[in-house]
Amino acid sequence: MSKQNQEGTTTLQLALAWGFVGIPLTLGVLQTLINAMKLFQ
Amino acid sequence: MGLLSFLDRKHTVAKPGFSRWMVPPAALCVHLCIGQAYALSVFNLPMTKLLGISQSAPGDWKLTELGWIFSLSMLFLGGSAAVFGRWVEDGGPRRAMFTAGCLWAGGFFLSAIGVYLHTLWLIYIGYGVIGGCALGIGYISPVSTLIKWFPDRPGMATGMAIMGFGGGAFIASPLSVWLMSKFSTPTHVGVMETFVVMGAIYFCFMMVGAVIVRVPAPGWAPEGYVAPKEAARLITRNDVFVYDALKTPQFWLIWWVLCLNVTAGIGVLGQASAMSQEMFPGHITPVAAAGFVGLMSLFNMGGRFFWASTSDYIGRRNTYFVFMVLGFFLYCTVPYTGAHGSVVGFVCCFLIIISMYGGGFSTVPAYLKDMFGTRYVGAIHGLLLTAWSAAGIFGPVLVNYIREYNVTHGVPKAQAYNTTMYIMAGLLVVGFICNFLVKAVDARFHMKANDARAKESGAAPAAARA
Questions:
Q1: Which of B22, B91, B119, B397 lies 20 to 30 angstroms, CA to CA, from A21?
Q2: Cβ distance of B298 and A17 shorter than 8 Å
Q3: For residue B461, is it within any domain?
Q4: Per-residue pLDDT band at B329 (split at 50, 70, 90)
Q5: CA pair distance B5, B10, nearest whole angstrom
């Protein structure tokens, strides 16, 4: 099969894609968890 | 022409070697952005002080007027998902994500002009109508693509994307507050600039999703995956045409299942802060109540992934049975936790309830796929989202008006929600019956191998692929 017809996804691409959405989501979740802890104070 | 062809479904087909694990982040790029809708309320107070700055002045907008922005956006979410569902399905996810990104950013920019000119109807059109259409198109855009990439675990795949919709507020809320603090001056609130920046950020984010999304090549299957030879009783191997689905009792039964599950959850979600403080006066302070709301949002998001993934193992219908039965007992337990002063019991009840509210949203695409096949699942899902719009009206009305009625008739505030809890439990009994009545779709609704309607949209029905 010719290389033009291949679209191999590298681990770096996967890490970048997941990091792109995962980092802001994790930061937001952590911020919410910190605020939520006020329920137990 | 170049851009238009780039957006085509045929230019979105993945080449060999493409990892299907690139598709959930693409879907999350869209859902995390449109999930901002849940954090719209952070703009409410600043937008009531656009003229007065430190406090509302005559001529400033009222909270009741601003409330319509969210209501309009939810109305147009359901409407556009229903109207554009087939267009999304035929054109593929990239065109839909691109369109949703343009509309979402455009809605923010028009709203910014509305704030600048202090013209509320521009915000109604910008965020409410245009943004609402972006919500509908964006919400359904990755659904059928994910189901096709993950035939082995469709619940988990759609659960991941729809979890993003629940998680969008976690990013939008602190980001909005931070941006407004940066742009505010003693003579300016900073809402307009915040809208412009957020519109630009969301546009870029959603375009990344549109670029990396791919649809699987015809006949593609994950490595090692063998489709079951025998069709399960409630998992069809056929396709049902989008508008034929409306003629089946299954569609309407699932419509009611979703509507009742969402009605039960959405009412308490909106009133959680006030309810917790009124049921436990002196025990739950406003600060603790805010923490409780945050915790509920986390369980709303987590429930979307957990329950949808669980449905891959126990089945969609059984998952909804769990929602209905467990929800019934939890709603009946809430008044007892109030009577016995059990804050922990109250919090646990609502956290599980709200996880099932989120789970209801994320499990339904896979339920539809089981009933109607994969070919038009995105479009059928779009039609089903009208149940969400209906529940958005029923839920808060039930909670607010029944509480108001009880309080004006002398019921102590701590017990004013008891009737509502029993009504919610009753709704779940109706939901249980609807779910129980769901059977396999009659074969006369299945698309035939030479169905002309499939040729119109350029994809063969399952009967032809088999």
A1: B91
A2: no
A3: no
A4: very high
A5: 8
CA–CA distances in Å: residue B151 to residues B33, B155, B226, B233 = 26, 9, 10, 17
Q: What mean pLDDT is reported for chain B?
A: 89
Hey, are the CB atoms on A20 and B25 less than 8 Å from each other?
A: yes
Domain check: are B143 and B57 in the same one? yes
Size of interface A-B (CB pairs under 8 A): 87
**CA separation (Å) from B443 to B195, B252, B347, B448?**
50, 17, 46, 10
Q: Tell me whether residues B17 and A27 touch, CB distance under 8 A.
A: no
pLDDT tens string B392-442: 777 777 777 887 888 888 888 778 888 888 988 999 999 999 999 999 999
Same domain for B399 and B252: yes
**A39 vs chain B: nearest CA distance in angstroms?**
4
Mutating which of A30, A39, A40 best tests the B interface, going by the most B Cβ atoms within 10 A? Answer: A39
Confidence (pTM): 0.88
On whether both B208 and B80 belong to a single domain, the answer is: yes
Is B398 part of any domain? yes
Is B212 in contact with A36 (Cβ distance < 8 A)? no
Count helices and strands in chain A by DSSP H and E runs: 1, 0
Indicate whether B226 belongs to any domain.
no
Interface mutation target, options A6, A11, A38, chain B, most CBs of B under 10 Å:
A38
Across the interface, do A21 and B19 touch by the CB < 8 Å criterion? no
The whole-angstrom distance between residue B440's C-alpha and the CA centroid of its chain comes to 26
The verdict on residue B21 lying in a domain is yes
Confidence of residue B465 (pLDDT cuts 50, 70, 90): very low
Asked whether residue B261 falls in the same domain as residue B138, the answer is: no
Beta strands in B24-141 (DSSP E): none
Q: Is B387 within 8 Å of B252 (Cβ atoms)?
A: no
User: Domain limits at B147?
Assistant: 2-212
